[in-house]
Write a structure and sequence with these properties.
By secondary structure, the protein is an all-alpha fold. It has one domain (about 5-190). The protein is about 70% helix and about 0% strand. The protein contains eight helices and no strands. The chain is elongated and about 100 Å long.
């Protein structure tokens, strides 16, 4: 196997890990309970979600670095840092590069929130939505990339491409179900301040007393 083959395999592993990571994240967002539902076991989905993200980031980093050891790819360090100048498929590689930096951003902000509490949960949650921007970028990169970097026509029925397409389809369907779930949820309850609730209850008591006095007068 050549360095290009190893790089392609690393890309497929990173894609699989990202797919699993996003699916776990969507399950967490709907408060899926693995004890009450399948697989009916205690599974630390939060930790699994975190570690699939860390591992996916590491493999996604190794994926292009392996090309530096290829005698035919012609990639240098500058090409990895600035994909638009890459000798092979610059546009497709640029999309992959942007997806990698977005993944690094998501993982970094998650670590800051979990370990150091440097950012609030509300801000972290908003930043975490970057995942939805990363998904189409790495999906297009994975589908349109020629594994051998020879600018060949894409064979969408090739085994590797079928794996990529199934991963992309799985995430797209899961996102669709997540949106559908959100649309069917009741609107959030408006919690009134405690003082306002106490004042409201007093008004109800006073109104009840006045009604009772009027009833006694009529009697």
């Amino acid at each position: 196997m050549t360095a290009i083959d190893f790089s392609g395999d690393a890309g497929l592993v990173a894609l699989g890990l990202l797919t699993l990571n996003i699916l776990l994240g969507l399950l967490l967002s709907v408060k899926y309970n693995p004890v009450r539902r399948w697989p009916h076991r205690r599974v630390n989905t939060v930790r699994l979600h975190n570690w699939t993200g860390y591992t996916a980031l590491a493999v996604a980093f190794v994926h292009p670095v392996i090309l530096l050891f290829s005698a035919t790819a012609g990639f240098g360090v500058v090409d990895l840092l600035w994909p638009p100048g890459a000798p092979k498929q610059p546009l497709i590689n640029t999309l992959g590069g942007i997806a990698f930096w977005l993944l690094l951003f998501v993982v970094t902000t998650s670590v800051l929130w979990q370990e150091r509490r440097a950012i609030s949960r509300k801000l972290w949650k908003r930043l975490h939505y970057t995942t939805y921007a990363m998904f189409p970028l790495y999906a297009v990169h994975a589908i349109l990339t020629d594994p051998l970097l020879k600018d060949r026509a894409i064979d969408y029925l090739d085994g590797e491409k079928v794996f990529v397409e199934l991963c992309v389809l799985g995430v797209a369907v899961a996102i669709g179900f997540r949106v559908r779930h959100a649309l069917h949820q009741p609107p959030p309850r408006v919690h009134r301040p405690k003082a306002q609730r106490e004042l409201s209850s007093r008004d109800h008591v006073a109104t009840g007393r006045l009604a009772g006095q009027e009833a006694r007068k009529r009697a």
